[in-house]
Each structure stands twice: as C-alpha cells, then as structure tokens.
Amino acid sequence: MLEMENKVLRFLARMGARGSLGQAVYDYLQDGREAFVVSADLAHASGFDRIKERFPERLINVGIAEQNLIGVASGLAKTGIPVVATSWAMFTSARAADQVRNFMGYMQSNVKLIGMDSGFVQSGFSYSHTNPPDIAIMRAIPGIKIISPCDGIEIYKTVYEALDTQGPIYIRLTGGSMLPIIHKDVSFHYGIGKAVILKEGDDAALIGCGNAVDNLITTSEILEREDISAKVIDMHTVKPLDIEILDGLSDYRLIVTAENHLKQSGLGGAVAEYYAGKYKRPQQLIFGVDDFYPKTGSAKYVEEVVGLNPEYMARQIVKTLNH
Amino acid sequence: MKNLEKYDQAFIECLEVSKEQLAGLEYQQIVNWDSVGHMGLVAAIEDAFDIMMDTDDIIDLSSYEKGKEILTQNYGIEF
C-alpha cells in the first residue's frame, strides 16, 4: 500500500480514475495479497501495465467479450481468491447485465466489477458511451454493493476495502485523467457504506457520489455567497446507503442529491425510496439526467446541458428554499 | 532548498535513482520511469514547485534535462 502521506493525494489525482484503480490493484498484489485481475481487452486502459509486467500470472485478458468477462471472473472467484474485472461502464452494466445478475448477484461470486468511464467521461463518443444506467441496473440486482468514489484516494481505498470484503461489488469510476482532490487529508476514515461529511451546514444537505461531489462543493460555495449554509456529503456507497447519516438529515428543510447518472433509479432514487416510508422527511431535489439523450460533447458540456453544473444547481436550490 | 535540489529530489524519490544517474536520464530508460512513474514524478514536481503542469508539458517531459528546460521556459523556475 502507498505510504499514506498527503503527497499521495496529488499523485492519485494525476493518475486519474483508471490510473488510481491500477495503482491500488498493483499495490494490493505487491503487498503479497491475492487477487486475480480480468479485463475485456482493457488492461492498459485499466492502469494494469505494471501488473502485466510483474504479476503476469494474475492477469487474464478475455478479449472484447464483456459477458464472458463476468463468467470467467466468477469462475476464477471459485478458487477463493477475489477477482477484479474491468471494462467500460456501459458494457459492464447494460451489455453484461444477465451475467452480472446470475453470476455475481444470484451466485454471489466474489467479483469486484469495475465500470470504468461511467457518467459523462466518454461523452465525446456519442450517446452509446455516455450516461450508462449502471447504478439503476445494479440496484435492481439483489446482493451487489455499489460504490461510486469521488477522487483518487477514495478510489484507492475503495479498491483495497472491496478486495478485503467478501461478495460481489460494483465500483463505478466517473472521473477522467485528472481528478479533483476532494479529500484533503489522506488519513480520512473510509468504510464501505459509511458516507463522509465533507462540510457542515444547516440550511440544506447536498448529497453526491462520484464526480458530482466536486460540483456540489462548488455549489455550496455559491450558496454561501447567498447566506445559505449547506452540508456536503460524499455518499460514495449507493448500496447500501448510509442510513444513519440519512436519519440525521430528517430535520433539514431540503436535501439535494446529485449524480452523473439518470435521475431515475440512481442515488437520488435510492435516497427518495429510503425516506418514502418515513413520517418525517425533508423535501428532496434530485439532480441528474432527465429522460432524454444529451448530445455529444465534452463532459463539462453535458453537465451544463443536463443541469449538473454548480451555477444551475445553486439557482434551483435558492429558488426552492425561497419558495 | 534550492530549485535544483528540489528538482533532483523529485527524481531521486519517485524513480528511486541516485544523483549520479540523473544526467541524461530519459523516460522509459529505466523500469521505474514508465507511465506510472512519470505521473508520480509530475505530481512530485508540481508539489515541489507549487505548480500545475499543462498536459503538453507533461507529455514533453521526456528527460531530466528536458524537464528543467520546460520548468524554466513555461513556469519561470530558474535553476
């Protein structure tokens, strides 16, 4: 494992989402721990070059065959050794959904499935590679944990903890080649299912996952200029949600969820479903992608089109609080 | 610490080389200066000089000497 010093934060930010993934898996093997690594012809893109050089017996390339990726990974997991399996998020979710459902879900295979470049990272490649409904698909499969880390150090800690946790886990990476540094202290406590409060505030609670967390931090800064104090929460684990944190928000007038994902059935949907049965629950604004197909463009362009940019979110929050 | 010392230290720590190996050192010349080592080096240089390097400069940073040239020309760092 990397020495947990604050300079690691910049290193992992520079490595990007997939580089941080590759570094974490490599370091896990370097630590003498066991894992298999399977990829659908994306070993280089997954940051596995050093694994290929130094642990070639642990790395399997199944070729561009994502359904087979899940099958091979699940079969390997029968050895008792955890397996990391990687492909693009649109393929790990939509294309391989049946295999994920049966092998990872129903059979509870000890596979850590990585959906790379989720959200809008590949929006330049048109809609086929944009905004996969990966959280929605994975939520509908019982027994799979879902994690969407927000920065490099969180990706790194997620991978380590996921490999040490028995059972199927889906990890979606929404960042590109340069990540923001959200967690400024490398020693922050990370636990699957344990959200992290990044900032305190009393007027509204902003809950995000993945890349959206950075935008929520900026949103909270805009709100401060309007004398609105907002709590910002990194809900990296979408399933299971941190219900202790959610229960602590029931007195808030407004909670806001934001994700680089459809509004339907993502983090926002999960939070709304949790509160639905509660007698006391805050009003909720859900930011994400509506029921349409955004046009091709950069990730930043798509964020603006779908209303996930901080300026838009802040305006909507002010409007709602002033209503 | 002087700028040259900070620059050298970034190379020595990230790439696990000695000071004597620095002159003429190039990207991919040693095992540790692969793509991963390169990003580690970039992060260390950025930290040392409190700068954010442009993508083009990161790509162009192909040797110990080239790095000094880039930092001087584009970031005003004198050695």
Comma- or semicolon-separated keywords:
heterodimer; A: 323 residues; alpha/beta; Rossmann fold; 2 domains; 7-stranded mixed beta sheet; 5-stranded mixed beta sheet; B: mainly alpha; Non-ribosomal Peptide Synthetase Peptidyl Carrier Protein, Chain A
Give a short overview.
The complex is a heterodimer of chains A (323) and B (79). Chain A has 323 residues and is of the alpha/beta class.
Strand order of the largest sheet of chain A: 2-1-3-4-6-5-10
Global outline of chain A: globular
Mean model confidence by pLDDT of chain A: 96
Number of helices of chain B: 4
The Rg value of chain A, from CA coordinates, equals 19 Å
Query: Helical content of chain A, roughly?
Result: 25-40%
Q: Which architecture of chain B does the CATH hierarchy give at level 2?
A: Orthogonal Bundle
- The CATH topology of the largest domain in chain A turns out to be Rossmann fold
**CATH architectural arrangement of the largest domain in chain A:** 3-Layer(aba) Sandwich
Largest binding interface between chains: A-B, 12 and 10 residues
Question: Major β-sheet of chain A, in short?
Answer: 7 strands, mixed
Average pLDDT of chain B works out at 94
Determine and state the CATH class of chain B: Mainly Alpha
CATH superfamily of the largest domain in chain A: Thiamin diphosphate (ThDP)-binding fold, Pyr/PP domains
Distance between the termini of chain B: 12 Å
User: Low-confidence spans of chain B: pLDDT under 50, at least 5 residues?
Assistant: none
Structure classification of chain B: mainly alpha
